[in-house]
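In keeping with the milestone schedule agreed at the kick-off meeting, the structural modelling team has produced records for the first pair of proteins. Each record is given below as a sequence line and a C-alpha cell line. The laboratory manager (R.T.) confirmed that both were archived under the project's standard naming scheme.
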Amino acid sequence: MDSRTEQSSDPPSNVPAPKGNQHRTQMLSLLEHMFYQLDLVATFKMEPETLRCFLSSVQEHYQENPFHNFHHGFSVAQMLYCVISQCQLQERLLPSDTLAMMVAALCHDLDHPGLSNSYQVNAQTDLAKRYNYNSPLENHHWAVTLRILSQEKSNLLVNVAPEQLPHIQQEIMELILATDMVHHGKILQSLQHIETLSFSNREHVTALKKTLIKLCDISNEARPADQAEVWADSLMEEYFLQSDREKAEGLPVTPYMDRDRVRKADAQSSFITFLLLPLCEALCQHLPQLSDSLLQPLRAAKLRYQQQMDKEMGQAERQDM
C-alpha cells in the first residue's frame, strides 16, 4: 500500500483535509487514486486522461466561496470514499451505485454561488425562475455535472453500456438533489423504517445511498476538532455574507445566518443534535463499523460545543455582575 492509499483510506475522522491553492494538485491526485482503488476505472473502461480531464473540469467549475468550493466537494467525496472502504460497500453495492455516489459527492455543489436556496427564491433570481423555485441550486449543480459529462474529453461515462447510461445519470441526479436539506427528514425516515438492511432490495439501497451522501455532505464535525473548527468558521463566514446581503437588499434574513444573532457554539451544537446525530445513529444501526469513526466523534463535538457555550455563558454572567 503506497502513501496515497494510506492517506485516502484512513478512518473518516482522521483523514487529512488539505486546503488552499497549493493543495489542488494533491486533491486531484487523491481523487484520481480513489477512482482506481474502487475499481471504477477498470469496470467502466475509463481512459486515464478522461478521468484527469473530468476531475480538472470539476475543480474549475467550483467557485471560490468561503465554504462551498472545490475543497468542500473534495472533502465530501473523500469522506464517502472512506466510508465505502471502511464498510467494504464496493463489494455489496453494484459498481454503478459506487460510481454514481462518487460522482454525485464530488459534483454536488458545482458552481455554487455562495447564496442559499432561500436567497435564490426570495430574491427571485434567474436561477430560481429557471427551476420553478424548486431546489434551484441542486438542479443547477446537476445541470453543470451533466454539461461536464457531455463533453467528449471529460465524459467518464463514454464507455458505459447504452442501456445502463440513463440509469447511472438518473442515479447521479437523484443523489445530488437529495443534498437539498428540505429532504433531510424524509431521507432519515426512509432509513429509520428499515429494520434489516438488504443489499438486494433496491429501495433499501436507495435509502442507504441518499443517507450516505447527505451525511458525508454535512459531516465535517466528525473530523478532528482543529479541522472541524476551520470548516465551521468558513461556513459561518459564507452565511454571514449572505445575511448582510439580505439586509442590504431588503430581503427576509435567514435566521441561522444572521451575524447579529448567531453564535457558533450554539449553532453547531444544535446542528449536531437535531440533524447530524439522528442521521448518523440511523446509519450506524445498519453499518456499526462507523460508530467509532463517525458517531463517537460527533458526540465528542457536541460535548465540546456545549462546554464552550457554558464557558461563554459564565463569562457573560461575570460581566453583568
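The second protein of the pair:
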Amino acid sequence: MRMRKSLGQHMLVDRRVTSRIVKYAELSEDDVVLEVGCGTGNLTSAMLRKCRVIGIEKDPAMVELLRKRFSKFIEDGTFRLVHGDALKVPFPPFTKFVSNIPYRISSPLTFKLLKSDFRLAVVMYQREFAERLCRDDNRLGVILKTYCRAELLEVVKSSSFNPPPKVDSAIVRIFPEPEVEVKDRELFETFVTFAFSMKRKKMGKIVQEFGRRYGVNIAIEEELAQKRPEELGAEKFAEILVRE
C-alpha cells in the first residue's frame, strides 16, 4: 500500500520492536488501549492478543484495510475503529495509550493525551522530540514535567519503518504523575513560553519584561536572575512563580 507523505505515514514493520513496545506497556486483559494512527495494523495485531483496542485512523484507505484485516475482532467487540482526526475526535475512555504516532502532530497530540485520564502511555516519537520531552532545558520539557514523568526507553533505527523516515525514532514511556506541582497552570505555561521565546536573555531581564507585559510582580533571586531559561529546569521555574 502506498503511504501518504501528507499524513506523515511511516509504518513500523520490525516485529522485534513491536513486541518490545507491547512489553513496555505491560498490557493485561483488563486494559483498553487507545492507538492513534493504526496504519496497516502491525502494532494493533500484537496488542489484540493481550487486550481490547480502540484505534483512531485518519486515512480512508487504511481504515478500509483495517476493517478487513480485523473484521472478526470488530465483530466480537475486541477492536473498535474510529475513522477521524485524532486531534479533533474526542478520546473515548481508555486505560493505556500505545501508539506509533504521526510525528508532525507529536506536540498537540501529547498535550491532548496528558489532559486525559489514563494509567500509562508508550509512544513512538521522532528521536529529537523524544529527547526534548524527557529533558527540562526546553519549553516542552519544562511544561511536560508539570503533567507527567517521562522516560526514554530506546532509540529505534529508521530501517525499522516503511518507508524509512529521514531520522531515527525513540520509544518513550509516560506516567501521568507530575514531577513538579504548580498552583496556576495557565500562568506557569505562559511564563515558560515567554521565557523560552527570549532564551538569549538572562532571567532577570525576562522576569522584568514579563511583569511589565502581563502586570505580574515577580521577585527573583540574584543567582537565578543571572541564568538563562535553559539553565533553570522545571522546579526552578515553579519556584520563581511561588514568589509572585
